[in-house]
Design goal:
single chain; 745 residues; mainly beta; 15-stranded mixed beta sheet; 44% strand
Length: 745
């Protein structure tokens, strides 16, 4: 939309009341009074009030005065106004309330009064953005001359959003520690939208499965405390450590699994290398972004990946200074980099990471930074890979608004991994794309955070449909050098945000051939091995590979799939058919297609006939505004839910296990399941789109094991690469994916 800098001081002024702060995600009535400037606004001139593209603040509505988000606009002189909402403004402020003076005009001093969430006729108000942010701008611009040239006002209305009261708790441990080594436990209170909050007052009893020196028996958290970190903890014996936080006998938090060992060549460090701040399409400052990752999400490593076409030379210099400042070897790794954001048809998004600061940024275009750059644009992904030759860099293929097209371009010397999960959703298909092309890549999951919350991103109320991912990297030390080596050797696994413990290794009865580097990239060192771990490339000949794996979940484990390429070769569960009974899961998953509008809105209802629902529970419902509703006592439910390649569902506990019928009707796919014949199999209804389906199956009535060990034998025929990897699915909907072991001819 055209943009002018003509006489902004004479375009008027605007004032917001009340001034805030407000609680994130709360309902409020925001009143904005615009006073026309020197020129007034001519007939058919306009006012735009815009907020950030990625904000999940509600969309105004204009015809339901008793409903949420009802919005009105009134002119002091009675001029007729046309008012609507659209995404019509320059990035990163696309969400826009548009006001056209349709019949009449404004003179200097005339006013427009805008009420977002007008409560005068019974509306509860306007639902605000759900993530905390300082200085949330309602950027206002004026087309005073009816020329469709808009000039931003010199002083913009803004308010602060603060967290609400504590609604849940998190307890965070490292995933691996040595006997006698110091480690820490972080305890974080979150409001209902996942914002860390100091608005908490709670007493805990701390229960540990093994003795931990320095762990208090009780913990008091008072209002204003913020995240509590208990340092100087020591485990004096090997074992798998479990710490629970309880109050009056009720568990409020359970820490992620921690394995204590006597020695380890490789440690486990958690990272979120992909997100961006408000200088590009995200929110908040880059400085606050890095501090959140370190001090609120308690991850070990972070990267910043701003869209390149929004990064000026000045901001690139600032980013490099920040990553150098925050990078502290042994404590916190901070990587310089950017997102090469090429159009989908020119290769799609790639995350670029440098080992050191001071390297050039090669942008996909200069569309929003024209005149503020010193390097030429590189328009296609194949040109990008040529431009990065000789750089100490790693590239990760990313699925965001523009998905990476591996068929268009790939260079295995640089592009070492694919991102299969982020807050955009789940994209295991990009890993399968790599397999089809014969590319040997690792698996990562990061957040692609746009809300200033790297390492702990929640989708809020927006079309971002998933919790942000995390990746566990196997490294001898917490340094950039060790991280680069882990990425180049594919020594990592990704999760949908939970710190699940995954171990995958394999053995051979006779020596086979291992490689220092992927041999299809050029000459490399070969050596005999009889052991392999995730990420290894092995030439086994005809020797079978014996896989041994272990998973310790953050919730009961529903299944662990061993995949040979794109095919599930074997599934392991911590229960058998004799454990199944009255609990039935209805699960839906998938996406519309690969691109930006991939989210699928599921509108569904189910009815039980000839039986009754004793109780029910949602599975992976991430938006507090989307709930399961009981529409008829003990027999019928309804819901709305969003999936973007990931999964969600409902668990039913029936009065009787094998009686009656379950009728399911959604806007995507519908069907009837005979509960009398539903045994230990899964009923699957195809929903079209990209992996869209609805499944019905039984689970054990009570919580089952969080621990699975498995053994699996792989025979290799030698016709083509055989990637072998794990996919873990927990009962709470979280998932994990290992990097493959590649068997090659």
């Amino acid at each position: 939309m055209p943009f002018s800098t003509y006489l902004p001081a004479q375009m008027g002024r605007i004032k917001l009341s009340p001034a805030g702060p407000f609680i994130a995600g709360a309902y409020a009535e925001l009143t904005l009074v615009y006073t026309a400037g020197t020129f007034g606004i001519d007939d058919t001139g306009m006012v735009k009030i815009s907020w950030r593209t990625t904000s999940d603040m509600s969309k105004p509505q204009f015809d339901k005065p008793k409903a949420a988000n009802f919005t009105t606009v009134e002119a002091s002189n009675g001029a007729k106004l046309e008012v609507w909402f659209d995404r019509l403004n320059v990035r990163p402020f696309a969400n826009t309330l548009l006001i056209r003076v349709g019949r009449g005009y404004l003179r200097a001093g005339d006013t427009l009064t805008v009420r977002l969430g007008d409560r005068r006729q019974g509306s509860p108000g306007f639902r605000l953005q759900t993530n905390v942010e300082a200085n949330v701008e309602l950027k206002t611009s004026i087309d005073a001359f009816a020329t469709y040239e808009f000039c931003e006002l010199p002083v913009q209305p803004a308010f602060d959003l603060v967290p609400g009261p504590a609604a849940s708790w998190k307890a965070i441990l490292p995933s691996l520690a040595l006997v006698g080594e110091l480690f820490r436990l972080a305890v974080v209170a979150e409001d209902k939208w996942g914002n860390p909050t100091a608005n908490a007052n709670q007493s805990f009893e701390l229960e540990s499965s093994h003795p931990v020196r320095g762990l208090p028996a009780r913990l008091e958290i008072k209002n204003g405390d913020g995240p509590r970190v208990i340092e100087q903890l020591v485990a004096e014996a090997e074992g798998d450590l479990e710490i629970r936080l309880t109050a009056n006998g009720k568990e409020l938090a359970r820490a992620n699994p921690l394995r204590v060992v006597k020695q380890a060549a490789l440690r486990r460090y958690w990272g979120d290398l992909h997100g961006q701040s408000g200088e590009t399409i995200g929110m908040g400052t880059a400085d606050a972004y890095f501090r959140y990752a370190r001090d609120a999400a308690f991850i070990d490593m972070v990267g910043h990946q701003g869209n390149d076409f929004q990064i000026t030379d000045a901001f690139w210099k600032e980013l490099n200074l920040l990553t150098a400042e925050f990078d502290v070897p042994g404590r916190f790794v901070c990587l310089p980099g950017y997102e090469w954001s090429g159009n989908t048809g020119m290769g799609g998004d790639r995350n670029i990471f440098y080992r050191r600061e001071g390297r050039p940024i090669r942008r996909s275009s200069h569309i929003l930074v024209e005149g503020q750059t010193s390097t030429d644009a590189i328009y296609t992904a194949d040109e990008l890979f040529r431009g990065l030759q000789g750089e100490d860099a790693v590239v990760i293929a990313h699925v965001g608004g523009r998905y990476a097209d591996l068929n268009y371009a790939h260079d295995g010397r640089l592009e070492r991994a694919v991102e299969v999960h982020s807050t955009w959703g789940t994209f295991e298909w990009i890993l399968h794309d790599a397999f089809e092309k014969g590319y040997r890549v690792g698996v990562v999951c990061h957040s692609d955070d746009h809300k200033g919350r790297p390492g702990a991103t929640r989708p809020g109320a927006s079309s971002f449909g998933a919790i942000g991912g995390l990746t566990c990297y196997f490294m001898p030390e917490l340094t950039r050098d060790a991280l680069f080596e882990a990425l180049r050797q594919r020594r990592h696994y990704g999760t949908s945000g939970a710190r699940i413990f995954v171990d995958l290794h394999a053995s051979f009865d006779q020596p086979v051939v291992g490689f220092a580097e992927d041999p299809q990239l050029g000459p490399t060192t070969e050596f005999p091995v009889q052991q392999a771990v995730m990420g290894n490339i092995i030439r086994p000949g005809r020797a079978p590979m014996r896989v041994a794996a272990e998973v310790i979940g953050t919730a009961p484990i529903e299944r662990v799939d061993v995949l040979h390429g794109t095919v599930v070769a074997q599934t392991f569960r911590p229960y058998d058919a004799s454990d199944l009974g009255r609990r039935v899961r209805v699960l839906w998953q998938g996406a519309e297609y690969r691109g930006r509008g991939r989210e699928t809105l599921w509108e569904g209802k189910l009815t039980v006939a000839g039986n009754r629902i004793a109780r029910f529970a949602p599975v992976n419902f991430l938006n507090p505004e989307r709930m399961v509703r009981e529409t008829a006592a003990a027999t019928a439910l309804a819901w709305t839910s969003v999936t973007t390649g990931n999964l969600a569902g409902i668990d039913l506990w029936l009065d009787e296990a094998h009686r009656g019928t379950l009728s399911i009707e959604t806007n995507i796919v519908s069907g009837v399941v005979e509960l009398t014949t539903l045994a230990d199999s899964t009923i699957v209804l195809d929903g079209g789109g990209l992996g869209r389906q609805l499944s019905v199956y039984r689970l054990p009535e009570a919580n089952f094991s969080c621990h699975v060990t498995l053994n699996h034998t792989v025979g290799f025929t030698g016709d083509a690469d055989l990637p072998v990897y794990l996919r873990v699915t927990q009962a709470d909907g979280h998932q994990a994916w290992s990097s493959p072991i590649y068997l090659i001819e």
